[in-house]
Amino acid sequence: MGKVVGESVARNDAMDKVTGRLKFPGDISITGQLYAKLLWSEHPHARIHVDTSAAEAVPGVLAVFTGKDVPCNEFGLIFKDQPVFSVTVARSVGDPLAMVVAETEEIADEARGAIRVSYEDLPVVTDPREAMKPGARLVHEHKGTNVLKSYRIRKGDVQKGFAEADVIVEDDYFTPITEQAFLQPEAGVAYIDEQGRVTVHSAGQWPHDDREQIAHALQLPVDQVRVIYTPAGGAFGGREDLSVQLVLALAAWKLHRPVKMVWSREESIRGHHKRHAFYIHHKIGAKKSGELTAAEVELVADCGAYASSSTAVLANAVLLCPGPYQVPNVCVDGHVVYTNNIRAGAMRGFGAPQAVFAAELQMSKLAEKLGMDPAVLRLKNVLVEGSTLATNTVVPAGVGVRETLLEVTEASGWSDRGSTRPIASKPSWRTGVGLACGWKNVGYSFGFPEQSSCIAELHGAQQIERAVIKIGASEVGQGVSTILAQIAAETLRVPFETVQVHEIDTSIVPDAGSSSASRHSLMSGNAVKGACERALEAWHSGQRPAVVKYQYVPPKTSPFDPETGECYPNFSYGYASQVAEVEVDPQTGEVALTRVVAAHDMGKTINPQTTEGQVHGGVVMAQGWALIEDFIQQDGYIKTRRFSEYLIPTSMDAPKDIQSCLVEIADPLGPYGARGVGEMTMMLLAPAILDAIHDATGIWFNKMPVKAEDVLLALKRKSRTG
Predict the structure, then answer these.
(1) Is the domain of 302 the same as that of 401?
(2) What is the pLDDT of residues 387-414, one digit of tens each?
(3) Which helix (H) or strand (E) element contains residue 548?
(4) Residues 596 and 705 occupy one common structural domain
(5) Considering the chain, what is the average pLDDT of its residues?
(6) Is the pLDDT of residue 419 over 60?
């Protein structure tokens, strides 16, 4: 057999998707199903009383569920601090208060409107900087504070480091709350299966954790809950928390009939978590030679009303905020704080985009002050093999940031930009070029248990005719099913078409962890490779069929020391560098992203075409974050409730030229040397775009999105002040 790893084989779900054979969660229906609708809080912070009597009297309504109907009315990804239905207090407009289940969707909608809720408004706190002050109104009164978690890092002597610096840059930055904007809203069907198990058929990012949370809330044994996933129409972290799964399970369990729910776009925007808004104060110093001497950073993140994965997001940001650089003296303080905003949680990059945004703009400003090429400054300081991180531990082997920087500057013509600047499409427009580097953990961090398990089954008489891979790695559009099938085919030395990846069903496939942290290529790739190797040995020994289960466990990580931050935070990192070219219209302030060159260290590229698709998608997502997307909450109320109000990039906005450079510095832990890439593709472009806008206009922007009116007003201010 020829090699499969490294080839751009067609995705194994492509034909089903383009022909419509594949059913997304909203397409699934079961004979005799009921329909469910949620009622949401209309106030961001209030004492509440819910009267469901009128709704229950509507003909065709089978039940109206509230918090009193949930055996254990709590759930949450890390901390179970969120009620399934708020009972006495609503803490955000994302709080569900009740659920109607009826014979038709129309009846359910009518009955939902008949529920009466009385609100006694409570003070609202929406700025995390104010919420963390003494005396601030508490979002969760029993906690005694709005500060969910704080982390710190202390390395070396920061004051001494700044005293040794010839140049210091100090500034404030803001990154906004962001909507994941996946195209398929949340949906699913729940029913009782033939073995009496509560079964939920939906989409998400971690089926086995969904099962655990459902079992906890319903107070059922885990083996009495079954979760089945169909591929999702996008996720980007937004499906890591529960959405419809738990409430559907409750309804099916109580009524013993199938129940379906499909959220509208407005419900989706209201009902799932968002990217954290971050307020960042960043100070960095360097010698005239460009050698960094010290970095001091304070981060304050908006948790929203409930914890979700906020503590892990903060930990990532605290670790990554000095950038992928060797800094001898580091002081970082990070806080994530409850507010009455929509809860924040996982989104592509998981704290890294916010941290990298400030760090990279600081490096570009530092280069300007030093009169040094920004690429040269970065090359003088980037992490290399054996570098010590701010946590006083050595970076894991396979460090590729320098190689990505060299690759992207060469491919983009960076060194010639002074003499051969890009030519604007219109005579009056100005052009600019910007650069950013970054890094991001691959796999879970800070001591969180990490593993991935796989069952490999080999079928056939004289030769392997069919290989079945059973693994709980959720396909959310990123192509993981194809990648794992390629690894299996390569390991078994069989044609790619021989490999079948089983659908995700927690009663059949083992836990592989979540589709997050850019982890499946390394973690689940190793699980598949290990299972296939052992199954092949069993096959050659005569077992028919050969069935083997294998669990891959990586090197252990450790949590921050509470005083110094010292720890071994991660077993692997991904690295990247990107260059952005923009055009700016000085008459309107419009910014057009015209070209992106992106260099990503893949370790080993399993499927180049899939990887390039990840790069293109990440680039456009980051473009939206930097220039277009503006999620607005005012006093806890959502003002951007649909895509006509929350604008995202379209094909007309995407840059015409996206050049992907796949760098391969083998990860010693990865299967065939592979490491993850999905999150790294979107976390660098925003600071590169803002660097390019500065190159075109001479103006620095420290917050996003940078919309046309922001640029125009800044240009007018600059012209007035000279």
Answers:
(1) yes
(2) 999 999 999 999 999 999 999 999 999 9
(3) strand 546-552
(4) yes
(5) 97
(6) no
Q: Is 1's pLDDT higher than 70?
A: no
Task: Return the pLDDT at 722.
Answer: 67
Judgement on whether residues 599 and 714 belong to the same structural domain of the protein: yes
> What's the confidence (pLDDT) of residue 415?
81
The domain spanning residue 82 has which CATH number?
3.90.1170.50
Residue pLDDT, tens place only, 507-559: 999 999 999 999 999 999 999 999 999 999 999 999 999 999 999 999 999 99
Instruction: Find the helix or strand (DSSP H, E) in which 689 lies.
Output: helix 685-697
Q: Is residue 44 part of a domain?
A: yes
Residue 605 belongs to a domain: yes
Q: What is the mean pLDDT of residues 334-358?
A: 98
Q: What is the pLDDT of residue 721?
A: 85
* pLDDT level of residue 371 (50, 70, 90 thresholds): very high
User: What is the DSSP code string of 333-352?
Assistant: EEEEEE-SSPPB---TTTTH
Please give the tally of structural domains in the chain: 3
Question: Do residue 430 and residue 454 come from a single domain?
Answer: no
Q: Which residues contact 96 (CB under 8 A, 6 or more apart)?
A: 38, 39, 40, 41, 84, 85, 86, 247, 271
Three-state secondary structure of 574-592: EEEEEEEEEEECCCCCCEE
| Residue-level length of the chain | 722
- Same domain membership, residue 599 and residue 527: no
- Is residue 513 located within the same domain as residue 597? no
| Sign of the alpha-carbon torsion through 360, 365, 370, 376 | positive
**What is the torsional sign of CA 653, 659, 665, 671?**
positive
Same domain, 524 and 599: no
DSSP-assigned states of every residue in 281-302: EEEEEE-TTS-EEEEEEEEEEE
179, 710 in Cβ contact below 8 A?
no
Contact 699, 691 (CB under 8 A): no
CATH code for the domain of 690: 3.30.365.10
Residue 264, in any domain of the structure = no
Give which of 377, 501, 522, 364 is closest to 440, Cα–Cα.
522
Contact by Cβ (8 Å): 33, 27: no
| pTM, rounded to two decimals | 0.97
Instruction: Mark which of 105, 122, 139 sits at the end of a domain.
Output: 122
Whether the per-residue pLDDT at 420 is higher than 70: the answer is no
- What tokens does 576 get? 């990247």
pLDDT at 43: 98
What is the extent of the structural domain holding 618?
A: 278-384+397-445+563-721
Q: At a CB cut-off of 8 Å and minimum separation 6, what does 76 contact?
A: 82, 213, 306, 307, 308
Considering the domain architecture, whether residues 567 and 649 belong to the same structural domain is answered as yes
Maximal CA-CA distance, the chain: 84
Domain boundary among 73, 106, 122: 122
Query: 273 in a domain, yes or no?
Result: no
